[in-house]
Amino acid sequence: MKINTVFRHLRESLRNILRNSWMTFASVSAVTVTLLLVGVFVVLMLNMNKIATDIEEDVEVKVFINLEADEPAIAKLGAELESIAGVESVAYSSKEQELQSLIEDLGEDFSLFEQDNPLYNTYTVKASDPKRTDFVADNAAILDSVNSVEYGEERVDQLFTFFEAARNVGIVLIVGLLFTAMFLISNTIKITIVARRKEIEIMKLVGATNWFVRWPFILEGLWLGVLGSIVPITLITLGYSYAYDLISPKLQNYFFSLLEITPFIYQVNLIILLLGTLIGVWGSMMSVRKFLKI
């Protein structure tokens, strides 16, 4: 394509946007609202996925060792735990260490148990895949010298089910919003095409190719998508920065956190801009292909 032709298509697409100012405003507003909703859902989903990953990675199996087990039996148990398929790490903690942890967490009142420690020696077992925690726990429970195994089975299963369902619902909502935006832009371009049908017919009669006619509309859709992404990018950048500064200090005592502002916010902004461009171009192409049939 010649450089003069490229500039001609650019001028034509910008002229169409200015000429149909009200339709442009309506289309950009629709895209803005849609991309804002998509951006909010993307921010929520990615942070939820981060929190879910943090929580899943924190799921561990606590193996309580029989009180009568001697050091060779404890060492043998550790080796057997490490040999279970799907085990990532095994950490030993004596009952004295367990009591110290209990005192640190719940207060000095529990120091009374130092003379007669009722706790168990334990192994903390971590699965390489959090979803295989139940498999690891079941295999650990049948080993010799094991008194009991705990990992919060019901809560862990419910947690995994909830996060999986939330991820699926989020994806469906985002896809639905994107198709809505494509539909809105497509209809806007269709109205523009109807108003310029005679002009297009004349262009075809004098030998204009299909792509020569298509390009101004495709570029027009691209501008609509880009313009519609400006407000969402601004609002989400400011909103997430404010929310991060507000929420992050409150999560310092927990084992999960929000995604850092940078580079996360730049990645989200890039996603919004690309989505705006994509839905604008795609909506225009579908409108031209199906409506004009050129």
Could you explain how this protein is built, in words?
This protein has 294 residues and is α+β, with helices and mostly antiparallel strands. It folds into 2 domains: 3-55 and 158-292, no CATH class; 60-150, Alpha-Beta Plaits, CATH 3.30.70.3040. It is 71% helix and 8% strand. It contains 9 helices and 4 strands, in the order H-H-E-H-E-H-E-H-E-H-H-H-H. It has helices spanning 3-19, 21-57, 71-82, 95-106, 133-141, 153-195, 197-205, 210-247, 261-292, and strands at residues 61-65, 87-93, 122-127, 146-150. The chain has a 4-stranded antiparallel β-sheet with strand order 2-3-1-4. The two termini are 19 Å apart.
Q: What is this structure's SSE topology?
A:
Layout: H1 3-19, H2 21-57, E1 61-65, H3 71-82, E2 87-93, H4 95-106, E3 122-127, H5 133-141, E4 146-150, H6 153-195, H7 197-205, H8 210-247, H9 261-292
Antiparallel strand pairs: 1-3, 1-4, 2-3
Helix pairs in contact: 1-8, 2-6, 2-8, 2-9, 6-8, 6-9, 8-9
Oligomeric assembly: single chain
Trace the largest sheet across and list its strands. 2-3-1-4
Q: Give helix and strand order, one letter per element, not per position.
A: HHEHEHEHEHHHH
Instruction: Choose one word for the global shape.
Output: elongated
Radius of gyration: 30 Å
Which class of secondary structure composition applies to the elements?
Answer: alpha+beta
Tally of alpha and pi helices = 9
The pLDDT mean sits at 79
Beta-strand percentage? 5-15%
**Helical residues, percent:** over 70%
Largest sheet: 4 strands, antiparallel
Number of domains: 2
* Low-pLDDT residue spans: none
First CA to last CA: what distance? 19 Å
